[in-house]
Each structure stands twice: as C-alpha cells, then as structure tokens.
Write a structure and sequence with these properties.
alpha/beta; Nucleotidyltransferase, domain 5; five-stranded mixed beta sheet; 181 residues; elongated
Length: 181
C-alpha cells in the first residue's frame, strides 16, 4: 500500500499558522443569580442582628462627682486584684482584713454576700495598675455571672434587682497591705 497524501505536501504545519480562530467580541454574564444571593444574605443578616438583644451594663453616675454618698460599712464588699493576679476581698472599711479568694469562687462568693445583704450590697473592685487586663476581665465576668443568678432570683420573687457596683483605683496603703500578704 502506498502512502496517502492529505494535502500537506510533506510540509509540517506550525501551530497557529493557517486558519485563525475568530476572537471573542463580547462576553455576557447574567448578574441575576448574583443579585438574588446578595439580597438573600442581606436579608439574613438584617434578621439575625435585629433578633439579638444588646448586651449592656447599666451604669448610674452621680450628678456631681465631688458629692459625698453615704454608705454603711456593713454593706461593702471590696475585691482587690493584685499585680500577681491574685484576688483578695475585705468587708467593711477595715483595710487590714484581707482574705484571699480563688478566681473560680468569685461568682458564688458574690451571690452569697448579696443574698446576706438582701439587695443592699455594694461591690467595689480595686485593681492594681500592674495587674493584667485579662485578670480584670475575668473578675468582671465572674461578677456578671453572679449578677445573672441574682437577677433571676429577684425576678422570681417579683422584686427589682438593684446592682451597686464601683471600680476604683487601688490606694497605696491598700497596695502595701496586699503586697505584705
């Protein structure tokens, strides 16, 4: 059998030579499905954000910062956050009556003292300037957990929960007393 010539004449064809493909003149993208998905996502996030309740902490500030507020010493609970992340507490105004408390007991301790004082306890948080921010946030979280328990209890009794809380700077005499412990 003989060789069959297909019209090449024995010459090799280079790619791209010969008949050129026509270039695309236009490209059409249908945006309708993309717009539909965008509106569905927008609607979802609008509903999801409006359904959640804002998490706020109610704060009341006296009209005059310099005004004196009368407080019974028996209704005070002071928590101290030391520079070494240890937590101490004292009741009343006696700065020498410090006792150490573990972080995991702050919540139950706060609930117990609030129950004893029947909604009249004032909690003061005093923080050493050298204390880690993370430790302060943990203490505040524990106090908020205690507040949730107390609010539920007072709501069940059909009473209004009155939270009294203050954050104050740690005075040098308290810092010295804590450092000695």
């Amino acid at each position: 059998m003989g060789a069959v010539d297909l019209g090449g004449g024995g010459r090799s064809h280079k790619k791209g030579s010969g008949v050129k493909k026509p270039k695309r003149i236009g490209f059409k993208l249908d945006m309708t499905p993309l717009v539909d998905v965008a509106f569905l996502l927008l609607t979802f996030f609008m509903f999801a954000t409006t359904m959640s309740q804002p998490q706020i902490m109610e704060m009341m500030i006296p009209p005059d910062v310099q005004s004196q507020v009368e407080v019974k010493a028996s209704e005070l609970l002071t928590l101290f956050v030391a520079a070494d992340e240890e937590i101490f507490y004292s009741t009343g105004l006696d700065p020498t009556n410090f006792k150490k408390i573990p972080m995991n007991e702050v919540s139950t301790f706060s609930v117990q003292h609030n129950r004893e004082k029947e909604n009249r306890l004032i909690t003061i948080l005093k923080v050493d300037p050298q204390a880690k921010y993370e430790t302060v946030v943990k203490v505040l979280d524990r106090l908020n957990q205690a507040e949730a328990v107390l609010t539920d209890e007072y709501t069940a009794k059909k009473q209004k929960r009155e939270r009294r809380f203050s954050i104050m700077p740690l005075e040098p005499e308290f810092k010295e007393a804590i450092d000695k412990l």
